[in-house]
Amino acid sequence: MSLNEVLLRVDRFAAGRQRDIRVPADRLADPFLRRSWLVVRLLLGVAIMLGVSAVGIAFWLTAQGMPEPFLVWFRSLVVLGLTGGLGYFSFRAEQGWYWAYSRMRLFSFVFPAVTLTIAAVPGLYPAWMTVEQVAFAALMLGVGALLSTRRMRAAYRKG
């Protein structure tokens, strides 16, 4: 089985009804879009490093005799996994898959809204994790802003 066949199987799961909609290549040739996708990849890379750091901090604190609550571990690992999923969506969106772009655009605004709401609950997370959540939300809002530019939306319109 080729890599493309594997990716198409993953796409069937992730894309739903929109899995066959692909943006024409000529719309993706815009240098602005290429630069935007580069910045999106950089922001997602920083978000993944932030997630790995959160897991590392929780591990280090636990090793120092200050075990972190289950919610810290759960949130760290789930957000790290979700950010990795956004990385996959980014990869597929750059190839012209409409579904990946639309999901990235949606999640880049949903994740920060949920993250900031949860971060606002007093005492739910330690202060270091609240700071990490705000930084993560800022990164995701940056991704959402890039994906919502007029040129990006024009390139990824249906049809």
Describe this protein with a few key phrases.
single chain, 159 residues, mainly alpha, membrane, transmembrane, transmembrane helix
Descriptive report:
Keywords: Membrane, Transmembrane, Transmembrane helix. The chain crosses the membrane at residues 38-60, 72-91, 103-121, 127-148. This protein has 159 residues and is mostly helical. It has one domain (28-155). It is 75% helix and 0% strand. It contains six helices and no strands. The chain has helices spanning 3-15, 31-63, 70-94, 98-119, 127-147, 150-155. The longest helix is centred in the N-terminal third of the chain and has 33 residues, at 31-63. The radius of gyration is 17 Å and the shape is elongated. The protein starts with a helix and ends with a helix. The model has no long low-confidence stretch (mean pLDDT 90).
Write the layout of secondary structure elements.
Elements: H1 3-15, H2 31-63, H3 70-94, H4 98-119, H5 127-147, H6 150-155
Helix pairs in contact: 2-3, 2-5, 3-4, 4-5
**Percent range for helical residues?**
over 70%
Question: Mean pLDDT, nearest integer?
Answer: 90
Major sheet characteristics: none
The N- to C-terminal Cα distance equals: 31 Å
Percent of residues in beta strands: under 5%
Radius of gyration: 17 Å
Strand elements, count = 0
Kindly name the structural category. mainly alpha
Q: Please tell me what the overall shape is.
A: elongated
Q: Give unreliable regions as ranges.
A: none
N to C succession of SSEs: HHHHHH
The number of domains: 1
Q: In DSSP terms, counting alpha (H) and pi (I) runs of 4 or more, how many helices?
A: 6
Transmembrane segments: 38-60, 72-91, 103-121, 127-148
Keywords: Membrane, Transmembrane, Transmembrane helix
